[in-house]
Amino acid sequence: MQEYSEELINSFRQEASLMKRLRHPNVLLFMGAVTSPQRLYIATECLPRGSLFRLLQRNTAKLDWRRRVHMALDVARGMNYLHHYNPPIIRCDLKSSNLLGSFMTFFSSGIS
Fold first, then answer.
1. Which single residue of 11, 16, 55, 78 could bond 106 by disulfide (Cβ 3.0 to 4.6 Å)?
2. What is the Cα–Cα distance from 99 to 46, expressed in whole angstroms?
3. How distant is the alpha carbon of residue 82 from its chain centre?
């Protein structure tokens, strides 16, 4: 049985509380949170296409310029929403493994 520090539990609760308020087509939709003695879980919408990182690693991935631009605009829209949220949400680790979905939905978790 794993014990969690009070700091980690509070951080988890804050993250879940923030995620449940975020509503934007380009930000991952929060569905709920669960705690158990072994794990802390955040449930989100299912995006079966996976991350941009995974898409780029596949040799079969053909991204024409139109799709690339659409994906970049989706990321920019999601980031703009987060930056204009009150208070602003600033991501310091925007990377391809945090970009998900069917074009791009931004995963906004700050918990590792």
1. 78
2. 13
3. 11
Cα separation of 22 and 52, whole Å?
A: 21
Residues 71-102: pLDDT tens digits? 899 999 999 999 999 999 998 888 998 888 75
Active site residue 93: yes
What are the sequence ranges of the domains in the chain?
A: 6-106
> Which amino acid, one-letter code, is at 41?
Y
Give the right CATH number for 6-106 from 3.30.1490.150, 1.10.510.10, 3.40.50.2000, 2.40.128.120: 1.10.510.10
Coil, strand or helix at 79: helix
Identity of the residue numbered 110: G
